[in-house]
Amino acid sequence: VKPMTPRCTVPKAVPVGKSASLHCHENEGYPKSTYSWYRNSEPLSPDTKSNARFQNSSYTVNPTTGTLVFHAVHKGDTGRYSCIATNDAGFAKCEEQEMEV
Q1: Range of 18's domain?
Q2: CA–CA distance, 15 with 93 (Å, rounded to integer)
Q3: Which residue numbers delimit the Ig-like domain (predicted)?
Q4: What does the alpha-carbon distance between residue 61 and residue 82 come to, in Å, rounded to a whole number?
């Protein structure tokens, strides 16, 4: 079963240096969906250590729960965030939401 449009929760504004949690979830898809996050339409790498472009970012992505956690946000984390739920039957994307740091 193809995933439904996931419900995304993105904080509107986060002070510099604070943590932020972004959530993405849908429960219609079968098999269970995995989740990937995008900032300004660019995919966020789930592995920040191996990707040089994301080494200054302090976030972790959990593809199973759809949670994106910033441990300490900085100005560069400002942007429009969206999430895609994917399974064998297809994918669905939530609306982009702005997060300001």
Answers
A1: 7-99
A2: 27
A3: 6-101
A4: 13
